[in-house]
What does this fold into?
Amino acid sequence: MVFYTVVQVGGSIRIDTELGKAALAFVGENFPITRTKDDGDVLFAADLYFWWEENRAQYEPFPLFDEWRKRDFAQKIVLPMYRSTRKRE
It folds into this structure.
């Protein structure tokens, strides 16, 4: 779920879908839900990224995600964008 949304750059998971319900049960009730005009309530990719970074030690490594995170595009575009969204909250 984290990798799926992160590689969509700014993507989200609607919480009224099967994936959204499963994801919300997994990340917990305190996870931030973003309300959008078009898609309703969603789990936003940046929030999922930071959740993973804070909780990754509890789970098996995910090499594909780690590889993506090291790429120039992630380092120069995506992660700075996600960090800027977090600063505005």
User: Anything to note?
Assistant: The radius of gyration is 13 Å. The chain has a mean pLDDT of 88.
